[in-house]
Design goal:
single chain; about 190 residues; mainly alpha; globular; membrane; transmembrane helix; Teicoplanin_resist-assoc; VanZ family protein
C-alpha cells in the first residue's frame, strides 16, 4: 500500500479538484438549462463513474518511468504470464497480487456504472461489456504509447471480471437496500 501511495499519491489532489470542478460545472449547467425535475442524487453515480474512469486512466496510462519512453511487453495468450510467474518466481504473492489489483481496479467502475444505469435492463451484461471495452481501450493505448507498460490479455480478463464483480456488488447492495426499506415499511 505504501508503494501505491508513493507512486500514485499525487492523484488524490487531482481527483479532489476534478470532483469539485465537476460538481460546480453541473450546478452551473443545471441552473442555466432550467432542469428543475433533475435530482442531484442522480448525478452522484455519474460523477463517481467518471472519477473511477479517470483513476483507471491515471493508474494504467501513466508512464512507469516519468519522462522516459519505454517499450512495453505484449502477451496475447491467456494466463501465460501467470504460468511463467508461478514456475520461475519463488514468491507466489506477486502474480496473485497483480491479478487481484487488476480486478480491484475495475470494481468501483462496475459498481458506479451499474448505479448509473440502474433503471435499465440487463445491468450486469451492459456493465461487463462497458468494463471490457474500457479495458480494451486501456490495453490498446498501453500497446501504442511508449509508456513502458505491458499489454496483457490477462489484464483485460481481470479488468472485465472486476467490472462484473462490481456490478454484482451493486445488485447485491440494491437488493439489501430494498429489503431494508420493505422491512421498515412493514414495521411502520
Amino acid at each position: 500500500m505504501i508503494q501505491l501511495w508513493r507512486q500514485f499519491g499525487w492523484v488524490v489532489p487531482i481527483l479532489a479538484l476534478v470532483t469539485a470542478a465537476l460538481v460546480m460545472a453541473v450546478f452551473v449547467w443545471k441552473n442555466q438549462k432550467g432542469k428543475a425535475g433533475a435530482r442531484w442524487a442522480d448525478l452522484i453515480p455519474v460523477l463517481f463513474t467518471l472519477i473511477s474512469i479517470g483513476g483507471i486512466f491515471l493508474i494504467t496510462l501513466s508512464p512507469l518511468v516519468p519522462g522516459v519512453a519505454l517499450e512495453g511487453n505484449t502477451n496475447f495468450r491467456p494466463f501465460d504470464n501467470l504460468r511463467l510467474n508461478l514456475i520461475y518466481r519463488t514468491h507466489l504473492h506477486i502474480p496473485i497480487r497483480n491479478l487481484l489489483a487488476n480486478i480491484v481496479l475495475f470494481l468501483p467502475f462496475g459498481f458506479f456504472y451499474s448505479w448509473w444505469i440502474r433503471k435499465r435492463r440487463w445491468i450486469l451484461v451492459k456493465t461487463t461489456i462497458a468494463g471490457s471495452v474500457l479495458s480494451i481501450f486501456v490495453e490498446v493505448n498501453q500497446f501504442l504509447l511508449p509508456l513502458g507498460r505491458s499489454t496483457d490479455i490477462d489484464d483485460w480478463m481481470m479488468n472485465t471480471s472486476g467490472a462484473f464483480i462490481g456490478s454484482l456488488l451493486f445488485l447485491l447492495f440494491l437488493k439489501v437496500c430494498r429489503l431494508y426499506v420493505n422491512r421498515k415499511d412493514i414495521k411502520s
